[in-house]
């Protein structure tokens, strides 16, 4: 097996837990055998390689891609292989972690979150629901999957086999003193269908083609209906954003709804209305669902009807910057405003511009809130760290002439685990602030 030798001093970040090796951190690539006898080697896309420091320290085993700036993604600190057995073990471990927070027989959840579950570049979301055109159906399940790294894309067949086998026979280790080493923890069953959503631009950075569609089983023509926080949502796994639904905001939606009672609510960048429908159901006087996508707003209307809150929800198609400016000029007022924009900063190179955008929408939103009003402000830009996000909110409040009290600060839901040392896994910030 080939070995990637790092430049002097480049191992610190990796030893702290970060799994990526960038192209400019590599000193050389050597073939197998003792280092003093090994010959220079060329990496092939998708192959496994060992990563070593300049001082011959073993740092882990990785999948590699010479076409990417992320040259290697470490998946294990040991010298294990990456076969169907490996995938089954990692998927089973990831699934058991989700069981602490979710009833997977009834709740949709992200089963695999890439590097944070030691399966770099692999995303697996499992949706539990019913066909939208058959409301009498019992709950079924579908998988929405992404292969965002070359090494995972090359092993798609093994991964799909592992997924189906784990879901068909899920086990967990019993506690000490119990009769058996393993016990059945709940049969989740084979999914009705598997949808590949490899239309994410990040694949192009790996030299991979974009593609999406049904790759196994069946999928209802009119989509599915899932339950979240006791509410119903239409989900389009084939054409919706990302993998079909933003599962990472589930608990933040429920938390924000606690402040909605008796208030006029604005849900800006509402997508399919997650925050809006939760707020309306929790007793909001009215809810304005704002988005620039007509397709998203059509889903909001469907979801409002499904949950019996259509009279409370008004959909507005507009750009968030334009809407907030015009609402400020018109002296509109809300009691609760949710800002959940798409990632303004895809990387640190455009962070300054992104910060200006975040600061503007937060400042303008605060101008629409009187004393006692609640701002729920979110950012899904991993490049924007928590401290800079909070500083941005403070500066936005100064711009608006407002003073804020922090009520709550949360992150993505626990099915999107945060791995210490791997900052990219902590991407979603959600601050709830009260205007004083």
Q: Can you give a write-up of this model?
A:
The strands form 4 sheets. Strands 7, 8, 9, 12, 13, 14 and 15 form a 7-stranded mixed β-sheet that branches. A 7-stranded mixed β-sheet has the order 18-17-16-19-20-22-21, with helices on both faces. The protein is built from 11 helices and 22 strands. It folds into 3 domains: 3-76, Archaeosine Trna-guanine Transglycosylase, Chain: A, domain 4 (Roll); 84-224, Transcription Regulator spoIIAA (2-Layer Sandwich), CATH 3.30.750.80; 246-435, 3-Layer(aba) Sandwich (Rossmann fold), CATH 3.40.50.150. The model is unreliable at 171-185 (pLDDT under 50). By secondary structure, the protein is an alpha/beta fold.
Structural features:
seven-stranded mixed sheet; Rossmann fold; Transcription Regulator spoIIAA; 436 residues; 3 domains; 11 helices; Archaeosine Trna-guanine Transglycosylase, Chain: A, domain 4; alpha/beta
Overall structural domain count: 3
The 3D shape can be described as globular
Derived from helix and strand composition plus strand pairing, the structural class reads: alpha/beta
CATH topology of the largest domain: Rossmann fold
Over the alpha carbons, how many angstroms does the gyration radius reach?
A: 23 Å
- According to CATH, the homologous superfamily of the largest domain is Vaccinia Virus protein VP39
Q: Average the pLDDT over all residues and give the rounded result.
A: 93
Task: Give the number of DSSP strands.
Answer: 22
- How helix-rich are the residues, as a percent range? 25-40%
Count, helices: 11
Largest sheet: 7 strands, mixed
Q: Low-confidence stretches at least 5 residues in length (pLDDT < 50)?
A: 171-185
The percent range for strand residues is 25-35%
Ends distance:
62 Å
């Amino acid at each position: 097996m080939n070995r990637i030798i790092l430049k002097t001093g480049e191992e610190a970040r990796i030893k702290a837990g970060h799994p990526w090796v960038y192209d400019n951190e590599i000193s050389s690539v050597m073939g197998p055998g003792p280092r003093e006898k090994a010959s220079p080697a060329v990496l092939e896309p998708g192959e496994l390689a060992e990563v070593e420091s300049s001082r011959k320290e073993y740092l882990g085993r990785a999948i590699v891609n010479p076409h990417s700036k992320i040259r290697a993604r470490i998946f294990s600190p040991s010298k294990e292989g990456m076969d169907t057995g490996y995938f089954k073990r990692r998927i089973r471990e990831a699934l058991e972690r989700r069981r602490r927070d979710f009833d997977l027989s009834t709740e949709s959840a992200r089963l695999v979150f890439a590097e944070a579950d030691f399966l770099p570049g692999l995303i697996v979301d499992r949706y539990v629901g019913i066909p939208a055109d058959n409301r009498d159906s019992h709950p079924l399940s579908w998988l929405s999957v992404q292969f965002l790294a070359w090494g995972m894309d090359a092993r798609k067949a093994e991964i799909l086999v592992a997924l189906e086998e784990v879901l068909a026979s899920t086990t967990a280790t019993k506690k000490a003193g119990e009769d058996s080493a393993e016990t059945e923890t709940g049969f989740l069953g084979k999914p009705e269908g598997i949808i590949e959503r490899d239309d994410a631009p990040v694949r192009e950075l790996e030299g991979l083609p974009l593609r999406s569609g049904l790759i196994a089983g069946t999928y209802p023509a009119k989509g599915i209906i899932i339950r979240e926080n006791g509410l119903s949502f239409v989900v389009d796994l084939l054409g919706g954003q990302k993998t079909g639904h933003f599962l990472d905001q589930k608990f933040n939606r429920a938390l924000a709804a606690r402040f909605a009672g008796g208030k006029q609510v604005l849900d800006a960048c509402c997508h399919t209305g997650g925050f809006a429908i939760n707020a309306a159901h929790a007793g909001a006087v009215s809810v304005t669902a704002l988005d620039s996508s007509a397709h998203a707003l059509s889903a909001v209307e469907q979801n409002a009807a499904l949950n019996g809150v259509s009279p409370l929800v008004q959909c507005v198609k507009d750009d968030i910057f334009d809407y907030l400016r015009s609402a400020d000029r018109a002296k509109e007022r809300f009691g609760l405003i949710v800002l959940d924009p798409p990632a303004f900063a895809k990387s640190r190179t455009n962070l300054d511009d992104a910060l200006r955008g975040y600061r503007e929408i937060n400042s303008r939103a605060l101008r629409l809130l009187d004393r006692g009003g609640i701002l729920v402000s979110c950012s899904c830009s991993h490049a924007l760290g928590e401290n800079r996000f909070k500083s941005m909110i403070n500066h936005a409040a100064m711009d608006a002439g407002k003073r804020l009290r922090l009520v709550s600060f949360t992150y993505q839901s626990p099915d999107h685990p945060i791995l210490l040392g791997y900052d990219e896994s902590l991407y979603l910030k959600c601050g709830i602030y009260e205007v004083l």
